[in-house]
Amino acid sequence: MTSPSPSASTPRSEQAPGAATPRHAPHELLGLTSPAYGGDYNPEQWDEATFAEDLELMAEAGVNLVSLGIFSWARLEPREGVYELDWLVEIVNRLHEAGIAVDLATATASPPAWMATDHPESLPMNADGVRLGLGSRQQYCPSSTVYRERSAALAAALAERLGDHPGVVMWHIGNEYGCHIAECFCPACARAFRDWLADRYGDVERLNAAWGTDFWSQRYTSLEQVAPPAAMPTFPNPAQMLDWRRFSDHQLRSLMEAEARILRQRSTRPVTTNFMGDFPATDYWRWAEALDIISDDSYPDPADPAAAHEVAWAGDLMRGLAGGRPWILMEQAPSAVQWRRRNSPKRPGQLLLWSLARVAHGADGVLQFQWRQSRQGAETFHSGMVPHAGRDSRTWEETVDTGQALTRLGPVLGKPVRAEAALVLDWESQWALSTAIGPVEVGERFEAARAWHRSLWEAGIATDIVPVGRSLEGYRLIIVPAVFIDRPALAGHLERAVAAGAQVVVVGPTGVVDVNAGAVLGGYLGSLRPLLGVWVTDHAALTGQVQQPDPRGALVNRLSRAVGTPAAETWTGLEAVSEPLRRVLDRMGTPAPDLRAGGWAEELRIDEAPEEAVTENTRAGQGRQAVEIVAVFDGRGGGADLAGRPAITRRTVGGAGAGWYVAADLDALSRAALLTLVCAHARLRPVVADLPDGVEAQRRGDILFLLNHSDRAAEVAGVVGTDLLSGQSCTGHVIVPPRSALVVR
Ligand code: GLA
Ligand code: ZN
């Protein structure tokens, strides 16, 4: 048996990303006097007359920024090594003359046909070994030498020609890296994976130790034997999967970083690449470090009642990725998309309302995909700011309204959102959780984090989203939802925050595996155990899978009909033990609602004696108290075997701070009840109290956004100032019409 050396168990690439690079606010970098407004502009689809009309329409709509050239490679380099850039320069010139700035793409998102036909090895390969062909977009392998060389050369050619052009204000590297091809299983990627592993582990024995290859006879005798986790007989090794995720992320990121370096050598303009919210394949905490401006593409479904939460979630995440600074919405749909099974248009007013919601959550620019709706191609029926119908259409009218509204929001630029609640988000933990075989079934998109963020949002609490490695100083409430990898650095930050009086709510499954996907031994929660005073011994999934294919069988199956199967339930009941939590529930209705959880529950053990030792994180005289049981499983539903066991606990440190642990997948009502109690301890107030249903409030600096997502006019009291949108003054009661907003200063 070989045990991993310290360097193998804590590899370099695992360390916290570190402080964000100093960045200026986007409005300074882009020279904005009001939020950026515009969209993807793909003029190569159109003739001269249309281009001339575009300039007029852009002026009418208040467009001040367009993203140009994102899918122009085939026109810019029609034959390998032969560039035709004049047409693009001409368009930049004319946009500049018209006062429209350009976010210039490096045009490397979709290679031209010649790359596929002359260099077929540049095409990506799926897990079944199939090369994916030409005819859509993004058909490149991220390890392909020719793709790397040609994309670098194109970025350089563009930067040399247009890097100092006064009309170019920002670089747009690639487009939505990984959107279609986030991993490639071709021989070049297998080679690159082995090189990456060699760099990470040094030798094959360290890899064997990290991956636990003594199980299932997976031991390697040479790194050359290791392959990507392509099609295989059954479950892959989770450590291999986790490293594959890291590698695939690294491979894409290295493409973006290579282009960023090339641009910076030739141009002083800031660089961005458009993120996709909480896209699962890319650890955007790492990506953000290489960018000057954070930008996002976001397509909430107008048919989803939680769509406005999607806007808030993505916005808070982007602000977090930007280190608290503003960011740019790079793409949203002017109305419907075309890629869902059913594509709902935005409802009247929703384009402006959601645009303002983006700004409320920290965006200093709102761009759409795309300026003019395509007449041909795969996105013909994706809305555009200029729709097929032309100016005489609701989409155009709302495009103009939105642009006009944004021109009045100059005072918002650069203003920070101040949140006292934080939610910890860790991409690697999500990878480890979703590639683990068990213990609980989760999706790919941070389900627990989204659920807790939504509860905070519904409660009106402004929230930051932060990575595991960052100091949590200054936050009064910190939620740690399903951070599956045990992160000692996070535990340290949390202990310091609690010692300073913060409420920390840890939600399972957290601290279950190490950085190599190996189980934490001696009780899950790992390094969080001293803070919380509890540890997890078992996970209990509630499967909701009742095995009853033959309902009349119970009449005759004397043996099996007597067997209890609580795990076949989809929910479990909890009982509030703490008097304050009972009071919260009492206030929520008559009769008071009960607490429930679904999906999974955990079996907890409690550290009996309070820990007397004062660690470096708890000041003298501020020792940890005994663990208080806030709620227990009450035996209803799937929790029968957990009856009476702790489900929610709290350990106070010093006088005020506390570490709470939640050992179940609480439903929305139970989360809301618990947060009411925790927020009271944290002395945390909503941005605006007692708002009517459907109304969201957010603040940026001295500016208050009142966003009415509902279908009814809403009355809000105590609003004083000037509505920047209408210019009207507010002197107390205001009426916010349905699906509209006030921006009050
Ligand atoms: C993504 C892409 C765009 C476009 C939109 C359509 O965001 O970046 O090029 O395809 O989807 O919704
Ligand atoms: Zn490949």
TrEMBL record:
<dbReference type="InterPro" id="IPR013739">
    <property type="entry name" value="Beta_galactosidase_C"/>
</dbReference>
<dbReference type="Pfam" id="PF08533">
    <property type="entry name" value="Glyco_hydro_42C"/>
</dbReference>
<feature type="domain" description="Glycoside hydrolase family 42 N-terminal">
    <location>
        <begin position="40"/>
        <end position="408"/>
    </location>
</feature>
<feature type="binding site">
    <location>
        <position position="184"/>
    </location>
    <ligand>
        <name>Zn(2+)</name>
    </ligand>
</feature>
<dbReference type="GO" id="GO:0004565">
    <property type="term" value="F:beta-galactosidase activity"/>
</dbReference>
<feature type="active site" description="Nucleophile">
    <location>
        <position position="331"/>
    </location>
</feature>
<feature type="binding site">
    <location>
        <position position="189"/>
    </location>
    <ligand>
        <name>Zn(2+)</name>
    </ligand>
</feature>
<keyword id="KW-0862">Zinc</keyword>
<feature type="binding site">
    <location>
        <position position="175"/>
    </location>
    <ligand>
        <name>substrate</name>
    </ligand>
</feature>
<dbReference type="InterPro" id="IPR003476">
    <property type="entry name" value="Glyco_hydro_42"/>
</dbReference>
<feature type="region of interest" description="Disordered">
    <location>
        <begin position="1"/>
        <end position="38"/>
    </location>
</feature>
<feature type="binding site">
    <location>
        <position position="141"/>
    </location>
    <ligand>
        <name>Zn(2+)</name>
    </ligand>
</feature>
<feature type="active site" description="Proton donor">
    <location>
        <position position="176"/>
    </location>
</feature>
<feature type="domain" description="Beta-galactosidase C-terminal">
    <location>
        <begin position="694"/>
        <end position="745"/>
    </location>
</feature>
<keyword id="KW-0479">Metal-binding</keyword>
<feature type="binding site">
    <location>
        <position position="137"/>
    </location>
    <ligand>
        <name>substrate</name>
    </ligand>
</feature>
<comment type="similarity">
    <text>Belongs to the glycosyl hydrolase 42 family.</text>
</comment>
<dbReference type="Pfam" id="PF08532">
    <property type="entry name" value="Glyco_hydro_42M"/>
</dbReference>
<dbReference type="InterPro" id="IPR013738">
    <property type="entry name" value="Beta_galactosidase_Trimer"/>
</dbReference>
<feature type="domain" description="Beta-galactosidase trimerisation">
    <location>
        <begin position="419"/>
        <end position="545"/>
    </location>
</feature>
<dbReference type="GO" id="GO:0006012">
    <property type="term" value="P:galactose metabolic process"/>
</dbReference>
<dbReference type="InterPro" id="IPR017853">
    <property type="entry name" value="GH"/>
</dbReference>
<feature type="compositionally biased region" description="Low complexity">
    <location>
        <begin position="1"/>
        <end position="13"/>
    </location>
</feature>
<dbReference type="InterPro" id="IPR013780">
    <property type="entry name" value="Glyco_hydro_b"/>
</dbReference>
<dbReference type="InterPro" id="IPR013529">
    <property type="entry name" value="Glyco_hydro_42_N"/>
</dbReference>
<dbReference type="GO" id="GO:0009341">
    <property type="term" value="C:beta-galactosidase complex"/>
</dbReference>
<keyword id="KW-0326">Glycosidase</keyword>
<dbReference type="InterPro" id="IPR029062">
    <property type="entry name" value="Class_I_gatase-like"/>
</dbReference>
<protein>
    <recommendedName>
        <fullName>beta-galactosidase</fullName>
        <ecNumber>3.2.1.23</ecNumber>
    </recommendedName>
</protein>
<feature type="binding site">
    <location>
        <position position="339"/>
    </location>
    <ligand>
        <name>substrate</name>
    </ligand>
</feature>
<feature type="binding site">
    <location>
        <position position="186"/>
    </location>
    <ligand>
        <name>Zn(2+)</name>
    </ligand>
</feature>
<keyword id="KW-0378">Hydrolase</keyword>
<dbReference type="Pfam" id="PF02449">
    <property type="entry name" value="Glyco_hydro_42"/>
</dbReference>
<dbReference type="GO" id="GO:0046872">
    <property type="term" value="F:metal ion binding"/>
</dbReference>
